[in-house]
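User: Hi! I have a protein structure encoded as tokens and I'd like to know what sequence might fold into it. I'm fairly new to this, so please keep things simple.
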């Protein structure tokens, strides 16, 4: 049937994720829910959380830019239902009816632009759906309630009334418990309730909170549980997106330090959603991690380094001002220094590239030393080629290794060489233009230029 299971009570749960809005305030050609937080589209942060509840049937309601969602969600296990016209949140949720036909259990309704909803909170909502309780709503108390819809209760968790702010009277407007829009409803009730929602309001839209109003009118019970404002914060603008990024980064930095990572200026370090960092790692200021980074124990990341798609093994040292691109592997005790760039390259155990070097499509053996200004010329304008540098080899400064080429074990490449053919084990390769000396030439030239300038 396709569903994800509630861990605690084994009640099936399906998710309806509303993502049909136009997102006009983002001023973007990219669908709002695909804008990234920590290098991952915000929609996928939400899906990750839902997936921890044993994912299965997840229906994303699409409208504007549907094709972008279809492309992004391919292979994710989420199904798309289409809302052709924007007629409100209740109308949007109703579009999942066909996709969830035959499903029996709890149905979660949430929003694709509210990325930090926790699985634990969904579980708390599920715990409320028992006996006569038909709907469980997630509420919160924001610092500024503003225009949020209000939840009126009996003083505890039972809902008496749900009211939009613009429809609230003076007393109701002073209530601080607000509606996040997230709710859980049993499958035997949800479609009937959604289909009963009307559009008799100023906006002539079908509002999702009316599901609660209708359930109450039928004599059923609706309960509210509360969470913090950060969990249900939504993204409607670039400013809110930046605030969400800052929120995520702050929590991730705190988690890293709690796990044994030292950061001298944590507010300047930026993690990706999947960054894995070991213990006793030191991260200096102004370091950026893109997706796909794994860092072992006892690593030092010096300041102003940019790391993406890289694996850094125990005891390695990176930077300052280093760039590790996808496919970079630094083995135990290896080192890259300032202004070194690696791409699809393995730096062997104890090997060093201390400064001003580019290593692309390269395999560097253990203990090798790559001198300043060395580059591997891995691209001929059409194809990429590999360079192999043997264990204990020494490549002198300002050398160019033109791939495909091999530098043998223990070989030495003299400074300033351009190497276009393999260097054998233990060999010295010297590739320079022959030098000549012309005594007194510079003095005569300078004298002539002074006289010419004087005239």
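Assistant: Happy to help. Inverse folding works backwards from shape to sequence: for each of the 455 positions I chose a residue that suits the local structure. Here it is:
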């Amino acid at each position: 049937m396709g569903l994800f299971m509630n861990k605690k009570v084994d009640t099936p749960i399906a998710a309806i994720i509303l993502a049909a809005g136009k997102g006009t305030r983002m001023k973007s050609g990219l669908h709002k829910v695909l804008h990234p937080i920590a290098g991952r589209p915000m929609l996928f942060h939400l899906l990750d959380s839902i997936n921890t509840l044993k994912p299965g049937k997840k229906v994303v309601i699409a409208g504007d830019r549907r094709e972008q969602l279809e492309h992004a969600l391919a292979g994710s296990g989420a199904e798309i239902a289409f809302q052709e016209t924007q007629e409100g949140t209740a109308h949007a949720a109703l579009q999942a009816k066909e996709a969830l036909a035959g499903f029996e259990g709890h149905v979660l309704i949430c929003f694709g632009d509210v990325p930090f909803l926790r699985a634990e909170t969904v579980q708390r909502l599920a715990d409320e759906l028992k006996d006569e309780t038909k709907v469980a709503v997630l509420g919160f108390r924001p610092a500024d309630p503003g225009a949020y819809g209000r939840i009126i209760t009996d003083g505890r968790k039972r809902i008496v009334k749900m009211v939009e702010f613009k429809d609230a009277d003076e007393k109701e407007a002073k209530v601080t418990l607000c509606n996040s829009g997230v709710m859980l409803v049993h499958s035997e009730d949800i479609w009937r309730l959604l289909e009963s929602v009307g559009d008799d309001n100023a906006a002539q839209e079908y509002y999702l909170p009316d599901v609660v109003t209708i359930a109450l009118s039928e004599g059923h019970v609706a309960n509210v549980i509360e969470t913090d404002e950060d969990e249900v914060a939504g993204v409607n603008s670039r400013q809110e997106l930046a605030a969400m990024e800052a929120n995520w980064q702050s929590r991730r930095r705190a988690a890293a330090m709690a796990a044994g990572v030292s950061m001298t200026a944590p507010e300047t370090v930026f993690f990706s959603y999947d960054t894995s960092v070991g213990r006793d790692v030191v991260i200096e200021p102004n370091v950026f991690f893109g997706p796909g980074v794994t860092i072992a124990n006892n690593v030092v990341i010096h300041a102003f380094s940019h790391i993406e798609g890289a694996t850094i093994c125990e005891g390695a040292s990176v930077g300052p001002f280093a760039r590790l691109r996808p496919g970079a592997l630094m083995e135990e005790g290896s080192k890259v220094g300032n202004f070194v760039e690696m791409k699809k390259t393995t730096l062997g155990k104890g090997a060093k590239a201390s400064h001003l070097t580019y290593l692309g499509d390269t395999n560097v053996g253990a203990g090798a030393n790559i001198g300043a200004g060395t580059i591997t010329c891995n691209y001929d304008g059409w194809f990429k080629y590999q360079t192999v540098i043997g264990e204990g080899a020494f490549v002198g400064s300002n050398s160019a290794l033109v791939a495909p080429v091999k530098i043998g074990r223990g070989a030495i490449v003299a400074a300033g060489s351009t190497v276009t053919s393999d260097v054998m084990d233990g060999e010295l390769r010297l590739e320079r233009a022959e030098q000549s000396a012309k005594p007194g030439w510079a003095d005569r030239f300078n004298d002539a230029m002074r006289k010419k300038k004087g005239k």
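A useful reference point when you look it over: The first strand starts at residue 4 and ends at 5. Feel free to ask if any position seems puzzling.
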